[in-house]
Design goal:
This protein is 37% helix and 24% strand. The chain is α+β, with helices and mostly antiparallel strands and 504 residues long. Helix 5 packs across helix 7. The chain binds one RNA strand of 75 nucleotides through helix 1, strand 18 and helix 15.
RNA sequence: GCGGGAAUAGCUCAGUGGUAGAGCGCAACCUUGCCAAGGUUGAUGUCGCGGGUUCGAAUCCCGUUUCCCGCUCCA
């Protein structure tokens, strides 16, 4: 158990990182000069490099192999896609909250929590409040008359009908006490929590022109399954990888980049024979956590969180999250799911187009199973950033270092003339020009060299090259390593090879 | 969506009704001799935003936005 002091200290780590992120140009708040936009963030000069490097490493990991193809699907898709996927239906349920005890209820299941006696009392109270001859009362009476249900079920039926009526449900909720805490008049207005952003195709804002910003990139892969398979002549098992933005109209945003309304996903959907699902699921599960470790993320701060069978999503047979221990607690950075043939079957059903795969060996047609690896690029960014952040005491001063893996570091090498004279700047500029085509470099000749080192530490630059007096004599420079602060002398001619080797 | 806290220079913060401040950072020039510590000069604020009270508001009141924490939610 963590103490309050420990929690407080941990909380400040996020604050420090947010502060550093802004100061050094990793992350800015969106539309800051207008007061910001809730849950949206912009990646600055260093941030965009880090994010690109993360995505680049993922892309190479996924597609530099024989059995995975790349894809970049449109963000806007046919609205039927989201009906087939279940996103439209599953997330349009109106909800209410109890202001007293903070319980949340789905309006369509609220009836189950209210007993007969209470229902009767509530309906009567509603009718009384409306008054005789009122339209609403007549409507309620017609619910009774038209209900096919018998006996007690009839009351349930009517109660549910009232809840489904937009006007009557609001009125009835005023007479219904919270099933949990029993308080009266403590419900909020019913609200729909559809997580998808809507917009319109074409200039007319009408229902039939409504499309959604995708809430996940996966569906773009699923609907292109046969296109990709045919074009690439792949055979099962094979995967499709995609990186792209997705949008969810979250109720609450939270924890810096962790829960945002616009975010980026790195998804790879692996299509397999149904009987091989377990094997591939296990393989990908291990491969994905190893990826984070190989890029320097602290192994002790990574774990699996397997979803128990009774809490699986409607499409999943088996699921796990890769979680990172953020300062605010464990949080998912990637999900690995066995999605079965749910998605392709649904699209087959809704589109009327066969999504079956023909196996030449067994001469069988079937809808493949899908093993999904779905990583959050934005969340990974935050995890890598937080994980890299460190402070240490050096001669009584605090040294702030971002210990990025060299592959992820926004700037790979800083080139520093020790002093701005004796021809050192000229040599340093020459080195800069030679290295720049190969990697992101930064030239700095301002102020004392120690200060320049520290500035690079804060940006996470793994190597600093310093041109000094000895350079003038033997054409070597010092290569200063970020984490150890140790230096070695390397001949200028060997620099490129040396650095590339160091960055592996 | 509910409750609590916060918002003043790029960052960290002081400023309880009377001229907008400090440290660090940043920029220019000088000086340099390997880990943020020399010198000189300089820039930067609608005190989150909008109303109100007041002769006068960063300060008091109301609203609002954003961030953080807790609850809730997270297919």
């Amino acid at each position: 158990m963590r103490s309050k002091i420990a929690q407080k200290k941990e909380a400040t780590v996020v604050e420090k990182v947010v502060s550093l992120a802004k100061r050094r140009g990793f992350v800015f708040q969106s539309s800051e000069i207008y007061g910001g936009l809730n849950g949206c963030w912009d990646y600055g000069p260093l941030g965009v490099e880090l994010l690109r490097n993360i995505k680049e490493e993922w892309w190479k990991f996924m597609t530099f192999r024989e059995d995975i193809e790349g894809l970049d699907a449109s963000i806007l898709m046919h609205p039927r896609v989201w009906q087939a996927s279940g996103h439209v239906d599953n997330f349009s349920d109106p909800m209410i909250d109890c202001k007293q005890c903070k319980s949340r209820y789905r309006l369509d299941t609220l009836s189950d929590l209210v007993n007969q006696k209470r229902k009767k009392k509530t309906i009567n109270a509603l009718k009384e409040a409306l008054g005789d001859g009122n339209e609403g009362v007549e409507k309620i009476n017609s619910f009774f008359v038209n209900s096919d249900a018998e006996g007690e079920a009839k009351l349930d039926d009517v109660f549910e009908h009232i809840l489904e009526d937009e006007v009557l449900s609001r009125l009835m909720l005023k007479h219904l006490n919270c099933p949990n805490c029993g308080n009266a008049e403590s419900f909020t207005e019913p609200r729909s929590f559809n997580l998808m952003f809507k917009t319109f195709v074409g200039p007319v804002e009408s229902t039939e022109n409504t499309v959604f910003l995708r809430p996940e990139t996966a569906q773009g892969i699923f609907v292109n399954f046969l296109n990709v398979q045919g074009a690439s002549r792949q055979k099962l098992p094979f995967g499709i990888a995609q990186i792209g933005k997705a949008f969810r109209n979250e109720i609450n945003t939270k924890n810096f980049l962790f829960r945002t309304r616009e975010f980026e996903q790195m998804e790879m959907q692996y299509f397999v024979k149904p009987e091989d699902d377990k094997k591939h699921y296990d393989t990908w599960k291990e491969a994905r956590i190893q990826w984070f470790k190989d890029l320097g993320m602290t192994a002790e701060k990574l774990r699996f969180h397997d979803h128990p069978a009774d809490k699986l999503a409607h499409y999943a047979k088996e699921a796990t999250d890769i979680e990172y221990q953020f300062p605010f607690g464990w949080g998912e950075i990637e999900g690995i799911h066995n999605r079965t043939n749910f998605d392709l079957s649904k699209h087959q059903e809704f589109s009327g187009k066969s999504q079956q795969y023909y196996d030449d060996e067994t001469k069988e047609k079937f809808v493949p199973f899908i093993i999904e690896t779905s990583a959050g690029a934005s969340r990974s960014f935050m995890a890598f950033l937080v994980d890299a952040y460190s402070e240490e005491e050096v001669k009584g001063e605090t040294r702030v270092v971002l210990r990025f893996h060299p592959k992820l570091a926004p700037i790979k090498v800083a080139i520093l003339p020790l002093v701005n004279k004796d021809g050192m700047p000229e040599i340093a500029r020459k080195i800069e020009a030679d290295l720049r085509p190969h990697m992101k470099v930064f030239y700095d000749d301002k102020g004392a060299v120690g200060r320049r080192y520290r500035r690079q530490d804060e940006a996470g630059t793994p190597f600093c090259l310093t041109v000094d007096t000895q350079t003038l004599e033997d054409n070597t420079v010092t290569v200063r390593e970020r984490d150890s602060m140790e230096q070695e002398r390397i001949a200028i001619d060997d620099l490129l090879v040396h650095l590339i080797r160091k960055m592996k």
